[in-house]
Amino acid sequence: MNKPLPIHIKKGLDVKLDGLAELQTLEFPAAPFHYIRPSDFRWLTPRLLVAENDPVEVGTPLFADKQDERVVVVSPVRGCVRQIVRGAKRAILALVIESETNAAPFRVVDVPMPSNSQDARTLMMQYGLWPMLRQRPFSVIPNPDAQPKAVFIPCFDSAPLAPDYNQLMEGKEVFFQNGLKIIRMAAGNAPLHLCVREGADNSLFERCEDVQLHYFQGPHPAGNVGTQIHYIDPIAKGETVWFADPQDVALIGRFFAVHELSFEKMVALTGPAATTTGYFTASYGADLTKLFKQEWGREELRIISGNVLTGAKMEDFPTVRFYDRQVTILREGGQREWLGWLLPGFRKWSFSHTFLAWLFPRKSFAHNTSLHGGRRTFMMTDVYDKVFPFDIIPLSLLKACYIKDLEQMVALGIYEVDDEDFALCEVVCPSKMECQQIVRDALYELKMNS
Amino acid sequence: MRKFNALFDAIDSFLRTPATVTATGSHIRDCVDMKRIMITVMIALCPALFFGWWNVGYQHFTVVGGMGCAISFWPCFWYGFLKWLPLVIVTYVSGLAVEVLFAQWRGHEVAEGFFVTGFIIPMIMPPDVPLWIVAVATAFAVLFGKEVFGGTGYNFLNPALLARAFVFFAYPSVISGDKVWISGGNDAVTGATPLGLVMNGHTEALPSTWELFVGTIPGCIGETCKIAILIGASILIFTQVADWRIILSVLVGGYATALLCHVSGLCPVPGYQQILMGGFLFGAVFMATDPVTAAHTRVGKYIFGLLVGILAIIIRVLNKGYPEGMMLAILLMNIFAPLIDYCVVQANIRRREKRYSQLKTTRR
Q1: Rounded to whole angstroms, how far apart are CA atoms A147 and B100?
Q2: pTM
Q3: Which value does ipTM take for this structure?
């Protein structure tokens, strides 16, 4: 097969950050607790299926989605539901599962090979593998009855300090290929797009059969699934596309190939404030306090599940979220500086060239969580355009989202984007707009009205 | 003390960067904020301002002492500075008073936008303009150009230009004619600007191209030295604070129209001289590029700039009542910028719809 021409993403930005994960495996003993949080799944309203002190196995359903009770989230470990943590209005914040010591991290289930789309979907839902798929628009768990027009597997990550996919996928090739087969079957033979980084070692993905390979080059957000969908097969109103993480595809493949139900993934520990970096294996929700004993609980550090652009701050539960493959440790900011706006700024990182630091492009910068300014209205009208590679006018769409003008949002291309696609706009915005929140709220409004 | 919250916040965040940290979305942010953007624009304005100080004095001493007298540098500079200082103080006091009052009333922070507006207003006024007129014009511009629409970011007219337009229409005698452009001049000596000379048909008295370029001519404080304005332009373009697309397209539109007018015999002045006369270059670099009031879309910026350039020259050449067309051209295009954006956005919507339907057909 001839290699297709790479798709070149011209607009975007690679934020330079210290603390890329070293290619080493970190010792991570079995976690004593797992925190399963419904908030990991966008807009899922949970209906509890277990009670406190119930014993659970790997794959025991913990809660179902109230909108469609066939969709369940299952326990990733064998153990016992120790506590159900509730917040305001009795919303479920987390299920605390105490893991059984020395229990195998997987369960053997005698499951038949599915023969058609419905079979595959039913089995995936039954064993909690269905949430591994997500659907665009909205990045939610797909509707079990809908037919996607395509399936996308983003096989590289371009976010700051992104993990190396060859490291994540080591030893999972056969499972990955089997997972692709199952997903293709579940998706009713919709085309399967694998998006890889031009110039990287993609041999693992190039060996897959019956897939369409696409090569991307350029800065972040080249690795975002939204960007890839936009360049390959954009979503119009009424269409849906599925996407999944390659490690999740491998877990699905492993289940159907060797009948082992497991939720263990490799996760990268990264960040400028991490004492050690590397890769470790954990199930989603695993209590990571043993891993960063030195960092957890220190007020001057922020531990993020995910990357610095789209991740979530871990406050009560030191875990990795369901869809994340990276943990980042950053230093908290907020230090006040005298006449900060007036100084030459040799050490200040900025996408604009207003600080003299841009004359020394190779220098690495001490990023922290400071907002570096006050919130203003949209003023620098061209700054979003420079980091937003879609054929969509970001400022117009953001303004439509801001005032929740649904018709205009749809016309301007809201179905093609997700909040993570606006992360870079948010980073470079001198008015300190909460772009991701604006888009997320608008998407919610749209979903509720559609 | 709560009544003065807005003022305290403004002073506090002026002195020290705010302590806020990211709460939702991206955990790291760019170090740039609106204060930094505004200070960069002010730095870019400084070369033109410094030359303006000197030139105000130079023009004054030339008229008072007569041509050919020895004029030293520092007295000129000092004279111009003293002329400018009360102007800028009055502008800031009157404008910031309105700004702070509204910020307090609406309960938001004082936006930095006025720092640039207040810096530009004295630069686009004649040196001897009465201070009370400047105060009234500034308050009018901030109030009706900005605050009634919701404050900085919601305005559709450039406030500094609005202040100038206010003076131009309300008190025309202090900002037009031959007598106002030289500080301390007397009735016996006229100090017509090059544009005034062209309007009255005295093209033979026009300064040389070199003088137009260097700026040793009568005019507003900040607009005469084209070298200083070009230095400012390069600062704005290198720091990416101003969009080069607008500057380039204003120049292209203006030059093409001026050339056409010259070739067709409508105007005796060559095209390149039109660009160097009056506030054309100053407007192109510092006024048309205002990101809030210019077109917001990338293609829109080219159209906006071209039309500003074309209109400015057309007003200059065809309308004998208004020798300086740049101010009116920019204000007019400020009004049309949302329409330009609307057209560009609609084109984008249609293009994407076409792409969706093409993809659907190929899939079938």
Answers
A1: 57
A2: 0.92
A3: 0.91
